Amino acid sequence: MSLASLPMYDRPELRGAHDRYWRAIRAELGEGPEYLTRAGDVWDHWLSPDLLLSQTCGYPFRAHLHGKVTLVGTPDHGIAGCPPGHYCSVFVARAEDARASPEDFAEARFAYNEALSQSGWAAPQALARSEGFAFRNLVETGGHAASARAVAEGRADIAALDALSWRLMRRHDRFAAALKEVGRTPPTPALPYITARTRPARPLFDAIEAAIEALAPEDRAALSLEGLVPIPAADYIAVPTPPPPDEI
């Protein structure tokens, strides 16, 4: 039996829209499980020989999944200042904090979701390195929302958030009002859709592209889906990888 999951932005407020999105993909593809899998570890999903469709992050793809899965395509979320199919990290701090740029927070408490995150760890550290410093005063939180909340509640001073996650927090989370944006990283390829290594990408790409077109406008807006982009695996592999937290 095949497996499908869309775990990366599956907030409670979006589960209905994600379910309808999956049903549209399944209808276009003509196969697949009736329901998305939401239980279990995402790594088990990504590496399953039964994987029909999932979404991963660029860092796990280049570090561990490349060569073990098939890259299908990348959703375009319409992130300002980014090419189609790309995104960036947004640096946030408390609204009352007088500091105004990531460089001002070089010695501050930096909240990050996990060490294998492109937007939460790799992109902000790459930007810091380009400016001649590193975020070393680290607070690991386990998730983008937890990082943002840690800043809002004063347990950290700055965090780097996936730009789409930040957009969704501003729509749905009250604590986002206590935060301000203090910078963005350069764009990198956004979170790609993948399938099992033994499956071809083209039928899934075509089905997803058609499903996005078929979605109701309110679901496309809720999920920030503007299209699907065929970004080569080489573009993901070329993104710089910083040292892990214990080597900073």
Describe the fold and architecture.
- Helix 4 links the parallel strand 6 and strand 7.
- The protein is an alpha/beta fold and 248 residues long.
- The chain is built from 9 helices and 12 strands.
- The chain is globular and about 55 Å long.
- It has 2 domains: 3-78 and 190-237, D-Maltodextrin-Binding Protein, domain 2, CATH 3.40.190; 89-186, Periplasmic binding protein-like II (D-Maltodextrin-Binding Protein, domain 2, 3-Layer(aba) Sandwich), CATH 3.40.190.
- The chain has helices spanning 15-29, 42-46, 58-65, 118-130, 144-152, 163-172, 202-214, 217-223, 233-237, and strands spanning 3-4, 51-55, 69-76, 86-87, 89-94, 109-112, 137-140, 158-162, 179-184, 188-189, 193-196, 227-229.
What's the SSE blueprint?
Layout: E1 3-4, H1 15-29, H2 42-46, E2 51-55, H3 58-65, E3 69-76, E4 86-87, E5 89-94, E6 109-112, H4 118-130, E7 137-140, H5 144-152, E8 158-162, H6 163-172, E9 179-184, E10 188-189, E11 193-196, H7 202-214, H8 217-223, E12 227-229, H9 233-237
Parallel strand pairs: 1-2, 6-7, 6-8
Antiparallel strand pairs: 2-11, 3-11, 3-12, 4-10, 5-8, 5-9
Helix pairs in contact: 1-7, 1-8
